[in-house]
Amino acid sequence: MGSIDVDTVLPPGAWDSHVHIVDEDQFPLHPLHPYRPKKAPLSSLQAFHRSLGIEHACLIAFSVYHTDRSSILDALLRLGKGRAVGCIDQSVISDEELQRLHEAGMRGIRLNMRTRGDPVNKAAVIAAADRVRHLGWVIQVYIALEQIIEFVPLVPRIGLPIVIDHIGAPDEARGPGRLQPGYAEFIDLLRTGQVWTKLSGTYRFPNLPDLDEYVTDILRTAPDRVIWASDWPHSGGVEASPGGDRTQVQEYRKVDDAAFIARCRKWCRDVEGGTGAGLARKIWVENPRTL
User: Fold this and answer.
1) Contact by Cβ (8 Å): 69, 61
2) Distance (Å, rounded) from C-alpha 83 to C-alpha 30?
3) pLDDT at 4 over 70
4) What residues contact 148, with CB distance under 8 A and at least 6 apart?
5) Could you give the CA distance from residue 229 to residue 158 in angstroms, rounded to a whole number?
6) pLDDT at residue number 3
7) Is 199 helix (H, G, I), strand (E, B) or coil?
8) pLDDT digits over 12-41, tens only?
């Protein structure tokens, strides 16, 4: 028998806090879907999680479905113990529907201002937060690092837990992440305790010159506010559909998830020292459980 790579063994009770599912055969895409991803149903997600030893999942709204939550609700029903972050139209959704979503396992709403390069619509952000304030939900935002500068004044007005996707989504073409506009503001937000971030999606900026330092600085700053996620099934996004072709089915990126886990374990060791087991347990188990 071969030896087990301890760097890829996850703590018991591990969470994957950012995954997507899509099944166009069962749940048609929104007419305005920005691209057409390949099928990635719940059964494939569950097989992926079994291969890594992940016990809990948080399903995140896929931009190709806009505010259609049918696929997520179906998955939550079948999972029985899952959590989800969805998209809503705050101007039309009723309190009754929000309560139904809450009972199904939804615990937040996602605002995507990066996939299409949308500006930060401050009024819409506050309006969305107001709709779910009574439920204490999370406000999850996918924004570019430089957009965080615009977002900062909204944080105290939102008054709810905020999650920033993919460790702030730095742009590797702009040089070291710690020197980019928005980085200092991002770190300051993490210090408040109200703002969390997901250690995920680093394959989107693999050539960031200071990726190791960028991540370990975040872990040192807010060890209780970082949660790990695979970002499965690794969508290519709009940029992987040249010419804006929304009809061609898009393959997923090839990502070595075990290697990413091993790198995250190394970052934990670099920050905490020793085996890094305490910090690893935080980002995979304790922090997501709290959030």
Assistant:
1) yes
2) 22
3) no
4) 164, 168, 182, 185, 186, 189
5) 24
6) 41
7) strand
8) 999 999 999 999 999 999 887 788 889 999
Stated length of the chain: 291
Q: Give residues with Cβ within 8 angstroms of 46, minimum separation 6.
A: none
Lowest mean pLDDT among 10-24, 103-117, 135-149, 247-261: 103-117
In the block, tokens 């998209």 appear at 87
pLDDT at position 239: 66
Kindly report the average pLDDT of the chain as a whole number. 92
275: left (phi over 0), alpha (psi -120 to 50) or beta: alpha
* CA–CA dist 120, 146 (Å, integer): 11
Average pLDDT for residues 186-215, to the nearest whole number? Answer: 97
- For residue 117, the model assigns a pLDDT of 59
Dig out the tokens for 192 from the structure: 């408040």
188 contacts: CB under 8 Å, gap ≥ 6: 152
Provide DSSP, 114-183. STT-----HHHHHHHHHHHGGGT-EEEEE--GGGHHHHGGGHHHH-S-EEESGGG---GGGS-GGGSTTH
Secondary structure in 3-state letters for 65-109: HCCCCHHHHHHHHHHCCCEEEECCCCCCCCHHHHHHHHHHCEEEE
The amino acid at residue 158 is I
Asked if residue 14 lies in contact with residue 53, where contact means CB atoms within 8 angstroms, the answer is yes
Task: List the single range of 112-121, 137-146, 162-171, 244-253 with lowest mean pLDDT.
Answer: 112-121
